[in-house]
């Protein structure tokens, strides 16, 4: 698939590099010629293309969003997604590793409001980027789970294919409103790892059907 990445920092780059290795085409969507993350990404992966944000969206089959959650408010309005899949990797994190929208609703539903002509799917959000850079757990016979949520079945099929290529078992948790619970899973992971001393190379798995 042709994939546009809005945000190519820790998360965007880890996903983009591994999906490029699987044969996908990566377009970095950036309107900032001075961007340090874009410069670093191109240095490591010269096969990445760079286009303006709207041109990258226009060219892509799927768009991945991996910028600071607050930046969604200024970046998304005015963009046209033409019904394409927008994968929301962003997390609203508030003070003390709390939910940034006070757990009243999910960040992904806010992203959907800001990008009304996209099919938003929450994915690649419940772990630190370390597990997007390296999702292999060779000592275990089950795959790491990638929990996703969204309202559009076709969009979720596309995201499932990408998650599979990255070495995850995609688990469809239901409608986009489920993203609130995924965001709390993220906070749990972040508290355990970033504050609690657990190794970042740990994931959840789904046992059973
Ligand atoms: N870090 C994790 O382990 C992790 C895991 C899962 C989800 N997330 C979520 O994923 C998102 C990205 O996290 P990250 O760790 O990849 O961040 P990061 O390494 O700081 O990268 C952020 C990216 O967004 C761009 N950006 C920054 N401010 C922007 C703005 N105002 N408008 C447009 N683009 C902007 C940056 O470009 P420049 O270089 O030009 O500033 C960079 O490409 C966040 O929402 C985070 O909560 C993070």
Bin the strand percentage.
15-25%
Q: Quickly count the domains.
A: 1
Radius of gyration: 16 Å
Number of helices: 8
The mean pLDDT is 97
CATH C-level category: Alpha Beta
List low-pLDDT spans: none
CATH topology: Rossmann fold
The CATH homology group name: NAD(P)-binding Rossmann-like Domain
Cα shape: globular
Ligand species:
NADP nicotinamide-adenine-dinucleotide phosphate
Describe this structure in words.
The protein has 209 residues and is α/β, with parallel strands linked by helices. The chain has a single domain (2-195), classed as Rossmann fold, CATH 3.40.50. 35% of the residues lie in helices and 19% in strands. It is built from 8 helices and 10 strands. It has an 8-stranded mixed sheet, with helices on both faces. Strands 6-7 form a two-stranded antiparallel ribbon. The two termini are 29 Å apart. The mean pLDDT is 97. Residues 7-12, 32, 35-37, 66-69, 71, 75, 89-91, 93, 125, 128-129 line the site of NADP nicotinamide-adenine-dinucleotide phosphate.
List keywords for this structure.
single chain, 209 residues, alpha/beta, Rossmann fold, 8-stranded mixed beta sheet, two-stranded antiparallel ribbon, 8 helices, binds NADP nicotinamide-adenine-dinucleotide phosphate
Give the arrangement of secondary structure elements:
Layout: E1 2-6, H1 10-21, E2 25-29, H2 36-44, E3 49-51, H3 53-59, E4 62-65, H4 72-75, E5 85-88, E6 93-94, E7 98-99, H5 107-114, E8 119-122, H6 130-133, E9 145-150, H7 153-165, E10 169-172, H8 179-195
Parallel strand pairs: 1-2, 1-4, 2-3, 4-5, 5-8, 9-10
Antiparallel strand pairs: 6-7, 8-9
Bound molecules: NADP nicotinamide-adenine-dinucleotide phosphate.
Residues 7-12, 32, 35-37, 66-69, 71, 75, 89-91, 93, 125, 128-129 line the site of NADP nicotinamide-adenine-dinucleotide phosphate (NAP).
């Amino acid at each position: 698939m042709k994939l546009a990445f809005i945000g190519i920092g820790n998360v965007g780059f880890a996903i983009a590099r591994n999906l490029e290795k699987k044969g996908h085409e990566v377009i970095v969507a950036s309107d900032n010629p001075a961007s340090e993350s874009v410069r670093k990404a191109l240095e490591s992966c010269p096969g990445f293309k760079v286009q303006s944000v709207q041109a990258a969206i226009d060219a892509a089959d799927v768009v991945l969003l991996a910028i600071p959650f607050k930046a969604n408010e200024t970046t998304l309005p005015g963009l046209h997604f033409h019904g394409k899949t927008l994968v929301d990797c962003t997390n609203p994190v508030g003070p003390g590793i709390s939910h940034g929208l006070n757990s009243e609703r999910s960040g992904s539903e806010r992203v959907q409001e800001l990008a009304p002509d996209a099919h938003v799917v929450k994915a690649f959000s419940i772990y630190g980027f370390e597990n997007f850079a390296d999702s292999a757990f060779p000592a275990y016979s089950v795959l790491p789970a990638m929990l996703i949520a969204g309202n559009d079945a076709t969009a979720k099929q596309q995201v499932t294919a990408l998650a599979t290529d990255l070495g995850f078992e995609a688990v469809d948790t239901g409608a986009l409103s489920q993203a609130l619970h995924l965001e709390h899973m993220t906070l749990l992971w972040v508290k355990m790892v970033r504050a609690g001393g657990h190794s970042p190379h740990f994931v959840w798995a789904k046992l059973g059907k």
